[in-house]
Amino acid sequence: MLIFGKCHCANISFSLAWEPEPVEIPARACACSFCTKHGGVWTSNPSGVLEIIVKDPSLVFQYSFGTRTAEFHICVRCGVVPVVTSRIDHRVYAVVSVNALEGVDQSLLRRVAASFDGETTESRLERRKRHWIGNVQYIESSA
Question: What is the CATH number of the domain that holds 67?
């Protein structure tokens, strides 16, 4: 299944190849203060292939907080956060926002609360390597 998503103005878009065809898509509602304030609900498929396309890189702000091990890619024009990345051992891992998905049957989403309080930085990075998308291409357009 090929899943598409984007911010509201389409400056940041993505396609996620999800194999095999999902019978359900995990939708983790993160309980951290940043995700709580903007309604962050994330999904990933560790065996998926993610392509992120940015039309105008000058309109993307990368926000990090806490452990500074993840970057929230925020569209400056519309304010949407469609993707989060984490560079671990010279490799980029990512999750995508279920709120940015386009044309996905909502009945596929399995929403669960997620809290990562108490994790050490090392255990957090190890969890991301196991559960986040590990095949990520980040393409900036020369617009």
Answer: 2.170.150.70
Counting the structural domains of the chain, the total is: 1
pLDDT at 65 exceeding the cut of 80: yes
Q: Which domain holds residue 117?
A: 2-140
pLDDT digits (tens, 9 = 90+) for 91-142: 999 999 999 999 999 999 999 988 888 899 999 999 999 999 999 999 998 6
Q: Given CA atoms 124, 137, 139, 17 in this order, what sign does their dihedral have?
A: negative
CA-closest candidate to residue 83, choices 56, 50, 55:
50
Its pTM stands at 0.93
3-state secondary structure the chain: CEEEEECCCCCEEEEEECCCCCCCEEEEEECCHHHHHHCCEEECCCCCEEEEEECCHHHEEEECCCCCCCEEEEECCCCCCCEEEEEECCEEEEEEEHHHEECCCHHHEEEEEECCCCCCHHHHHHHHHHHCECEEEEEECCC
With a pLDDT cut of 70, the percent of the chain lying above it is 99
